[in-house]
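Hi everyone, sorry if this is the wrong subforum. Our group has a chain we'd like a structural model of before ordering constructs, and none of us has done structure prediction before. Sequence below.
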Amino acid sequence: MINGRKVLRSFRFAGRGILDLFRYENNAKVHLLVAGLVVLAGFWLRLNRVEWAIVLTQIGLVWAAEAFNTAIEKLCDFVSPGLHPHIKTIKDLSSGAVLILALTAVAVGLVVLGGRLIEWLNG
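Answer:
Right subforum, don't worry. Here is the predicted structure as tokens:
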């Protein structure tokens, strides 16, 4: 049987994590600002449902990657507060994963939004 209170509590904890991500993490704030601009551009360029699905998926993936990266970095800092070469490698790999996904999202954005912009300019 599903315990509704436990489910609601889990959602509350997850919501707190999302709020903390955007409240305290500078890179997450940048991703939030860029996502807002992309959404505004999407409305202006009148994206269709498939284009919206693609763009919103990219936004969600970047935000999720940033959340995982933040969690990994905080865990590393907790486990090893000092400098350690293995911890540095772990943190670099984690932030590198976010960069890979962010660059992919930019490429997807250029294809989707750029294609729409070219259509708009050609009338």
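For your construct planning: Residues 88 and 112 are 36 Å apart (CA to CA). The mean pLDDT is 95.
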